[in-house]
Amino acid sequence: MEPTGLMLPGGFNPDRDPVPGEASTTPPIVWGPRDHSQIPFPANRSSRKSGLLTFCFRFRSRLPVAMATSRLGVGETLGALNAALGPGGPVWLKETRARHLRARDFLAPRRALQARFGDGQVPERVVHAVAGLQGPGVAPVLRCAPTPAGLALQLQRSAVFERVLGAVAAYAAPAVSASPGPRVILHCPALRGAPCALRLSQLRAVLVADHLSRALHTHGVSVRLVPAVRDPHMLTFLQQLRVDWSAASERAATEALRSSAFAKLTPANDRGALPLGVLGRVCLKELVEERGRTAGYDPNLDNCLVTEDLLSVLAELQEAVQHSPEDSSLGLAAAPDAHADSCMVVHVVSCEEEFQQQKLDLLWWKLDDQAPLRQKHLVCGPVKVAGAPDTLTAPEYYELRHAQVCKASALKHGRDLAQDPAWTETFGVLAVASIKFEMLSTAPQSQLLLALADSSISTKGTKSGTFVMYNCARLATLFEGYKRNMEQGLYPIFPAVSSLDFSLLQDEGEWLLLFNSVLPFPDLLSQTAALACTAPGLHITARTEMVCKFLVQLSMDFSSYYNRVHILGEPRPHLFDQMFARLQLLRAVRKVLHTGLAMLGLPPLSHI
Prior knowledge:
- By secondary structure, this protein is an alpha/beta fold.
- The chain is 43% helix and 11% strand.
- It has 22 helices and 15 strands.
- Strands 2-6-7-4-3 form a five-stranded antiparallel sheet. A four-stranded parallel sheet has the order 9-8-12-13. Strands 1-5 form a two-stranded antiparallel sheet.
- Strand 12 (343-350), helix 15 and strand 13 form a beta-alpha-beta unit.
- Residues 468-608 form the DALR anticodon binding domain.
- One of its GO terms (biological process) is tRNA C3-cytosine methylation.
- It comes from Equus asinus.
């Protein structure tokens, strides 16, 4: 039987696909006005050896003006590509590795297409649809070609460079949702103690809560932080860590909760000998059964000892739900009829605190009819330290990292700069960067293993926060070098972006930076702020590790490119066009890097 569509070739070797710009052994077939009803494709290795034709479908028409001005998006492009294949689950993948990006930008894998269409035959209409793909946010397509790996798609790279680098600010910040969702109360019980008692697992919960708060704020979500920190030493420590948390406020009134508690306490003759300071005991067993153990509550939850401190905690949470103040930084305010159903409470706790927090949840529902129905637990996994006692506290950990940063700087510069006021803030930022990248680069629910050796804060180690800050400083040095040479008359003033020739960006490292870092950054920010508000069960997950991992990979790609390519070339007019195109690309990289660091509460450094 004659095939009715495109038959994907066998024997795939993704690294042998044709590379744009290289001479091809066989000319591509370009769609013309003639109708091609059937396109047979050799399906085995023997036919491939005898000479495999490459079929490429090109799309070069200009996009409508409105479409050309919209921000391109990886999500929008993938959505359009999958829709072009017809009904079914997602098939297309975005390539990220340099060796694959030499030949393609997106791939519909061979096996996935075989499962979708059978016998590896892709209908001609599908290839037409993919080759002519366009729409709001969809990147312009250059060619769509069947390869041994599957259906490969390459974008019009010069056009993508022009669209993205002509509107850098749009790609360095997320689009704030018109409907940001419910108000969020972020509750981090670890902040009720003193810093000297803060364990590393609790420090992890604090940093996760702070990062999540910044991500939600960026997307226009109204966030309230609980508790308001009252210990002045804790406030000072949080400032050292560059954690943005609310300070002390008046204590919330507990009278209503106390009255409700007394009404539901175990009768006096059944209380037995209660510890000093305990008002009484409340049975939670019925609530556990009502909520269902499948929701994630510990089956061992039974009685809860009610104290004034516990009622004070509940009163502060109750006040946060009922009275969400205006957010002066965003101009957001709770609606006049805001109530418990319009918000979600997320308790960010260490694994050691989870059992006690479950008790608190159930007690809140027991004592307050207006308690929010949506209470979720973001439980941070344990923190283990290699070769160190489990008693290491958060302040001790900070002092250790700070001392290591100072020591590394002394070795680099040949003198001790720890007492130099000009370096004081830099060393503090580097110490905090080391801590935050260590604590946040692993998914919060997973166990974290810390290595405290000096090598873990080296600028040569590609996984560390100091490595990211080092590359941030390299970018600052690069642009300072251009500015200095421009002021000396060696380079001209930076021209209008609209006049730049982005077709001169031919190095694979340049496309890697744009396609893997600048273009997908808004999607990354959206994923970081995503919370499953309506998901069943008690527990919730967050992708707070994504920004750190992204910034590390961005720094690795930039470092590789910067070490290999001379950006600021000789002051010769025929070299300026390429230099300015490269500088504009690195402007976008710098903007994305600074925005990512701000999501972690870290300022960019100009020297290190």
